[in-house]
């Protein structure tokens, strides 16, 4: 609720409807930090852990340790509370990327580190259950959903090591005043070493839902089990060695390495294209089962508006949105084209069609499904539940449309436009950005409406009387495979993890040695509102 509230406020600041440095006691950049940290880091990780617990225990039919999973939850809550306290106290206005020289209170960095450790504990709860399952089921294929959740957390484990180093070795001592400055380029490189695989850690739980639930919800089967496994294991390999595409404009890193990682970025689109074709084939199979005919007319038989299958549009609308999020990602990945859009409003437009599109809709829909399922509550107002993803999709398209066009006209991201460019009293006033910022605001308000409706459905469902459930039904009904291929190459994580680690070393060894050799002058800390060096623990 807090994360979404600050999202809507962003659009009001940017359109110049709010012309101040703060609203309701929260500063612009403080709210932007809360928006990013809550939505992109905290919500996504809690969801991935919860979905993993549910799917791993259900699919392996092996109990997870309650002590371990409770410990994971408590540690994650503690870390999140520490980071939130620092943000709300105005001591960690560093945005979700926490790049130096923006400096936060040590509680923020330590809170994030503790939060990450809590999420590792979740993975460590699944490993003994998985090993027991393998011992008891020799020769059997690991259930697809389990492969997907493990892939997500293997990526997370690899990705969080460089950021843990950044936080514990560079940022915490700097924030405590033990060091006078920090190597900004090294910190940014370690952050993006984490930050790019992070986006696939966000995406993978939703991909698991697409491969394992969507075909069944559509009334059919998954077209190819192999495609799902191949997507999951290739994302383990390709997610990490690409972070430099976020640093095309950074100094101290050679163009050759930026070019190499740019090319690898184009490769990572391949598993998503495989996903697009496999899911379209699965939808076609389901539609034809339901009487669909013709080359395109079968699309009419997809259950867009079936109240009983209210979860379907959360996944389907996410896919439609991701088509555009993915294409714009390919624009960003092109080294030369990125120079036009980097650090403009184009970027938030791209990532609201990825993380705020498929990922967020997957989180909303599946949270409602899991919470009501676990508590044996009915989903009340099914028509409203069904409408929410369509409202959200309309909102994100309008919002992102405004930001894409604004970005192409040079509108910056992460800027309180209401104070300057959208303020007629300012010498920087840009009337030509009025239309794009206002289109963005309309989209933001529609997205805010969808969230309000979601909480109405959730709260009404939570207070409804429990319903009887049929005994023996799984909590999460999963799809069967239409083509259930048995391909040994995708049945073992070890070779894929080995290649992933080798590629990471190859992709980062030279850029990091170059940065270390460059001997950048350590930078003191700053606050986003001021060009003056901040106090030690401001
Ligand atoms: Fe990205 C920046 C490149 C995917 C998130 N990205 C960001 C940032 C975020 C983000 C948060 O190369 C900003 C970070 C910041 O704060 O600075 N991104 C890509 C590429 C992909 C990509 C090549 N991004 C994602 C995903 C994200 C995400 C996924 C979150 C979950 N991104 C970049 C680059 C930058 C960047 C640069 C840095 C730019 C800069 O200047 O800083 C690819 O993985 C995308 C591949 C996807 C596809 C689409 C497949 C389509 C599917 C749907 C099928 C639909 C069906 C239904 C079947 C090829 C699966 C159809 C039905 C109908 C009726 C239509």
Write the layout of secondary structure elements.
Elements: H1 2-14, E1 22-23, E2 26-27, H2 28-60, H3 66-88, H4 106-136, H5 144-175, H6 184-212, H7 214-217, E3 222-224, H8 225-238, H9 255-289, H10 312-333, H11 335-341, H12 346-352, H13 355-375, H14 382-408, H15 434-463, E4 481-483, H16 493-518
Parallel strand pairs: 3-4
Antiparallel strand pairs: 1-2
Helix pairs in contact: 1-2, 1-15, 2-3, 2-4, 2-5, 2-13, 3-4, 4-5, 5-6, 5-8, 6-8, 6-13, 6-16, 8-9, 8-16, 9-10, 10-12, 10-13, 10-14, 12-14, 13-14, 13-15, 14-15
Task: Describe what this molecule looks like in 3D.
This protein is mostly helical. The chain has one domain (2-518): Cytochrome C Oxidase, Chain A (Up-down Bundle), CATH 1.20.210.10. 66% of the residues lie in helices and 2% in strands. The chain is built from 16 helices and four strands. Strands 1-2 form a two-stranded antiparallel ribbon. Strand 1 and strand 2 form a beta hairpin. Helix 1 (2-14) runs antiparallel to helix 2 and helix 10 (312-333) runs antiparallel to helix 12. It is globular, with a radius of gyration of 23 Å. Heme-as binds next to helix 6, helix 9, helix 10, helix 12 and helix 13. Residues 97, 199, 202-203, 245-246, 265, 268-269, 272-273, 275-276, 279-280, 319-320, 322-323, 326, 329-330, 332-333, 338, 342, 347, 350-351, 354-355, 359 line the site of heme-as.
């Amino acid at each position: 609720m807090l994360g979404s509230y600050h999202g809507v406020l962003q659009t009001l600041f940017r359109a110049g409807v709010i012309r101040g440095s703060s609203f309701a006691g929260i500063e612009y950049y403080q709210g932007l930090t809360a928006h990013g940290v809550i939505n992109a880091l905290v919500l996504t990780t809690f969801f991935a852990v919860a979905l993993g617990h549910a799917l791993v225990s259900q699919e392996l039919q092996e109990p997870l340790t309650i002590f371990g999973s409770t410990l994971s939850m408590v540690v994650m809550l503690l870390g999140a509370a520490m980071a939130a306290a620092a943000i709300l106290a105005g001591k960690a206005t560093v945005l979700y990327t926490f790049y130096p020289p923006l400096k936060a209170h040590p509680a923020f960095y330590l809170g994030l580190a503790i939060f990450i450790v809590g999420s590792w504990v979740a993975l460590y709860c699944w490993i003994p259950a998985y090993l027991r399952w393998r011992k008891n089921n020799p020769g059997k294929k690991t259930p697809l959903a389990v492969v997907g959740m493990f892939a997500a957390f293997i990526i997370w484990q690899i990705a969080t090591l460089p950021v843990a180093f950044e936080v514990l070795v560079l940022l915490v001592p700097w924030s405590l005043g033990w060091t006078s400055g920090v190597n900004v380029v090294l910190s940014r490189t370690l952050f993006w070493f984490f930050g790019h695989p992070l986006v696939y850690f966000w995406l993978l739980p939703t991909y698991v839902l697409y491969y394992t639930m969507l075909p069944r919800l559509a009334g059919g089967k998954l077209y190819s089990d192999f495609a799902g496994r191949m997507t999951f294991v290739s994302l383990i390999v390709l997610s990490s060695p690409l972070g430099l595409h976020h640093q095309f404009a950074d100094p101290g890193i050679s163009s050759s390495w930026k070019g190499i990682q740019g090319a690898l970025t184009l490769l990572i689109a391949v598993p998503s294209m495989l996903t697009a074709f496999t899911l379209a084939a699965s939808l076609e199979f389901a539609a034809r089962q339901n009487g669909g005919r013709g080359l395109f007319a079968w699309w009419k038989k997809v259950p867009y508006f079936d109240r009983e299958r209210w979860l379907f549009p959360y996944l389907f609308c996410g896919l439609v949105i991701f088509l555009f999020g993915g294409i714009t990602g390919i624009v960003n990945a092109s080294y030369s084209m990125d120079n036009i859009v980097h650090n403009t409003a184009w970027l938030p437009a791209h990532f609201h069609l990825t993380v705020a599109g498929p990922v967020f809709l997957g989180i909303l829909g599946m949270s409602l499904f899991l919470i009501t399922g676990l508590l044996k509550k009915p989903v009340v107002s099914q028509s409203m539940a069904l409408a929410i993803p369509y409202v959200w999709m309309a909102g994100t398209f309008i919002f992102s449309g405004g930001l894409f066009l604004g970005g192409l006209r040079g509108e910056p991201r992460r800027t309180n436009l209401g104070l300057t460019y959208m303020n007629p009293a300012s010498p920087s006033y840009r009337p030509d950005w009025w239309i794009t910022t206002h289109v963005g605001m309309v989209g933001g308000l529609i997205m805010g409406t969808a969230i309000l409706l979601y909480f109405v459905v959730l709260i009404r469902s939570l207070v409804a009387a429990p319903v009887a459930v049929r005994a023996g039904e799984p909590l999460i009904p999963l799809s069967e495979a239409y083509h259930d291929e048995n391909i040994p190459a995708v049945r073992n994580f070890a070779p894929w993890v080995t290649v992933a680690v080798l590629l990471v070393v190859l992709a980062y060894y030279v850029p990091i040695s170059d940065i270390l050799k460059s001997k950048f002058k350590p930078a003191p800390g700053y606050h986003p509102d001021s060009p003056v060096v901040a106090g030690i623990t401001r």
